[in-house]
Amino acid sequence: EAQVTQNPRYLITVTGKKLTVTCSQNMNHEYMSWYRQDPGLGLRQIYYSMNVEVTDKGDVPEGYKVSRKEKRNFPLILESPSPNQTSLYFCASSFRNEQFFGPGTRLTVL
Amino acid sequence: AQTVTQSQPEMSVQEAETVTLSCTYDTSESNYYLFWYKQPPSRQMILVIRQEAYKQQNATENRFSVNFQKAAKSFSLKISDSQLGDTAMYFCAFWTGETSGSRLTFGEGTQLTVNP
């Protein structure tokens, strides 16, 4: 089954404690993205990757890092999380105009 | 820069009735795609309908149809025969291609409630 998986699905953490949200896709897509969803703002792109070792900033990259060492994986790293990064995060992979979203990760930073 | 605006934060409709959700966008691109996504309480992002800007015919998917007005940059979603399962957040989104990182630009969302 074609899918995008994310882990964990829920995470509560404290300010400054480094965390990683994993994302994996099994469709051999070149493009992958991370979005965050906030009330009244919709979804906004954080980072994207066009292929292995190729990443670039989206609309709201501050406070985040990503890596793309393998085609299937695109982890999102928060080196020092802050309360304003409390949000719902989605990973997506895409082929042309079709986007496949993961199930989302609800992150709370206390 | 592309922008997408959904001016109705919340809407409600009675079961079996018809409801229309509004979306406007701004772009200087000539070719692009527009989408409506549904997000039920499970938070899953579900594609409802897709429209290519070059196609004049409005897209339809069963009870869902769009009114695409390219000159007015308007892309509304009509849901006919509303069902309780249609209760969800609906997002309008815009895509111009892979040169911009294959980014979808989303509107703010409209929370639709279908009442029994």
What order do the helices and strands come in, and which of them pair?
The complex is a heterodimer of chains A (110) and B (116).
Chain A (H helix, E strand, L loop, with lengths): L3 E4 L2 E4 L5 E7 L5 E8 L3 E10 L2 E4 L7 E2 L9 E3 L8 E9 L2 E4 L3 E5 L1
Parallel strand pairs in A: 2-11
Antiparallel strand pairs in A: 1-3, 3-8, 4-5, 4-9, 5-6, 7-8, 9-10, 9-11
Chain B lengths: L2 E3 L4 E5 L4 E3 L2 E3 L6 E7 L6 E7 L7 E2 L2 E6 L4 E6 L8 E8 L8 E3 L3 E6 L1
Parallel strand pairs in B: 2-12
Antiparallel strand pairs in B: 1-4, 3-9, 5-6, 5-10, 7-8, 8-9, 10-11, 10-12
How would you characterize the overall build of this protein?
The complex is a heterodimer of chains A (110) and B (116). Chain A has strands at residues 4-7, 10-13, 19-25, 31-38, 42-51, 54-57, 65-66, 76-78, 87-95, 98-101, 105-109. Chain A is mostly beta strands and 110 residues long. In chain A, strand 4 and strand 5 form a beta hairpin. Chain B has strands spanning 3-5, 10-14, 19-21, 24-26, 33-39, 46-52, 60-61, 64-69, 74-79, 88-95, 104-106, 110-115. In chain B, strands 2, 5, 6, 10, 11 and 12 form a 6-stranded mixed beta sheet that branches. The mean pLDDT of chain B is 94. The chains are: A mainly beta (110), B mainly beta (116).
Mean pLDDT of chain A: 96
Mean pLDDT of chain B: 94
**Poorly predicted runs of 5 or more residues of chain B:** none
Q: Whole-Å distance between the termini of chain B?
A: 41 Å
* Cα shape of chain A: globular
Structural class of chain A: mainly beta
Total beta strand runs of chain B:
12
Task: Report the order of strands and helices of chain A.
Answer: EEEEEEEEEEE
- Tell me the number of strands of chain A: 11
Please give the share of residues in helix of chain B. Answer: under 10%
Indicate the proportion of strand residues of chain B: over 45%
Binned strand content of chain A? over 45%
- Helix count of chain A? 0
Largest sheet data of chain B: 6 strands, mixed
Number of helices of chain B: 0
